[in-house]
Amino acid sequence: MSFTADRLLLFGATGDLSRRMLLPSLCALDADGLVDPKLQILGTARSDLDDAGFRNMARDALEHYLPENRKGGIATFLNRLHYQPLDATTLEGFDALAAKLGTPERGLAIFLSTAPSLFGPTIEGLRHGGLTGNNVRIGLEKPLGTDLDSSCRINDAVASAFPEKRIFRIDHYLGKETVQNLLALRFANMLFEPIWNAAYIDHVQITVAETVGLESRIDFYDGAGALRDMVQNHMLQLLALVAMEPPVNYDPTAVRDEKVKVLRALRAVTAGETVTGQYRAGAVDGGVVPGYDEELGHDSDTETFVAIKAHIDNWRWAGVPFYLRTGKRLPERTTEILIQFRCIPHSIFDRASARLKPNRLLIGIQPEENITLSMMTKLPGLDRDGIALREVPLDIAMPDAFTGVHRRIAYERLMLDLIEGDQTLFVRRDEVEAQWQWIDAIRAGWDKEGLKPKAYSAGTWGPSAAIALTERDGRSWHE
Ligand code: BG6
């Protein structure tokens, strides 16, 4: 099992993800000497290209997507690239693919970044081409299905050729530096873990806000919506990392065992605990933008915003709501987690100006990477009428704390982990299934109630009902 692959086979090699993320990440790793000198990368897709044509495409993508100071390694990296056209829906091309790939010295890593409908036929083809042996591992890009059933079908198809320990399901949020920092914050400090529970925490908020709209993904997005596109995967992974029990060590099994327990403890949500929205025309980043239906070209009931009040039914989190919200065309791009602590049990300060605010821990994931703990402190002065207090932040701005340290994008880490075989940051089958189970129940509730998304203007924080979701509990979203 523990081999560093010397061949990488990329399905969907001419696609958007490959051009924007995979090739630039691999090139950056190569430029830093982190890729095995022997690694050869074979791209495949339907496009009728040869090696030279693929290298030209890759060069254009790298010139476009790599930052200026990372372009030095392009020419050397291109030498690693090869290409074999393939129609993955038929078995015929897989022999030629295997022949072009040659025999790896140590092992092969495969990455599928294709439509999920191609996963089944591709696995068949790989088996046919003799590309599923013990020295082969496979990475899968989302979406892995649209509900529990379809996800099980995909997982069954992959499992028919690869054991779970050789399957690497991507959730790119797990590759983000600040997401892993959550584990460091929780489990490398004495300060938080003793109070990380219902006795001290009032509620948790997780926000993933985007300013972009449909982009160029009309077909995919309209069939998915915010719940399946963002909550089922990224937001539930964030929730699991915030809520899980301490794993015994930082090992793929230990970490994923704890995450899945949280996912299984999620209580079924009632329709009144969710709000869905769809953006109308408005203004984002100072520009006027059209509504979702206009971008789409027809009417649709797909939600571009969702807010949920979730509960984790276990000892640690009894009675602590987790408010989740995500949406497109919101006022700013921000991903953050807010841990709202409870009030102190008794105040010794009785002046009006000494009104206490409960502590908050704000974990900024992107674009700002910082951790802020808001604390009550004394306002300087003689206090002849009694002590005055004010809330001040105790701040860690990650870029300042680590100046000069190069911060890697998620796919750099994840591609390297795939090549080297570390599963810690990949999602296990039981996690995916627990995630879908919870999401499917929410969708079934919406269908039963005939719930339609409420309109919100682009550039606002979603429909007003989302604000009511927290306000009726006497709480407010952090903005
Ligand atoms: C993807 C979703 O998984 O994540 C997109 O399909 C979304 O709709 C993207 O825009 C957000 O990723 P990031 O890293 O930009 O927050």
Give a verbal description of the structure:
- It is a single chain.
- This protein is α/β, with parallel strands linked by helices and 479 residues long.
- The protein has 2 domains: 7-169, NAD(P)-binding Rossmann-like Domain (Rossmann fold, 3-Layer(aba) Sandwich), CATH 3.40.50.720; 174-471, Dihydrodipicolinate Reductase, domain 2.
- The chain is 35% helix and 21% strand.
- The chain contains 14 helices and 17 strands.
- The strands form 3 sheets. A 9-stranded mixed sheet has the order 16-15-14-13-7-12-11-8-17, sandwiched between helices. The protein has a 6-stranded parallel sheet with strand order 3-2-1-4-5-6. Strands 9-10 form a two-stranded antiparallel sheet.
- Helix 8 packs across helix 9.
- The chain starts with 6 loop residues before the first strand and ends in an 8-residue tail after the last helix.
- The model has no long low-confidence stretch (mean pLDDT 94).
- The structure holds 6-O-phosphono-beta-D-glucopyranose.
- Residues 210, 229 line the site of 6-O-phosphono-beta-D-glucopyranose (BG6).
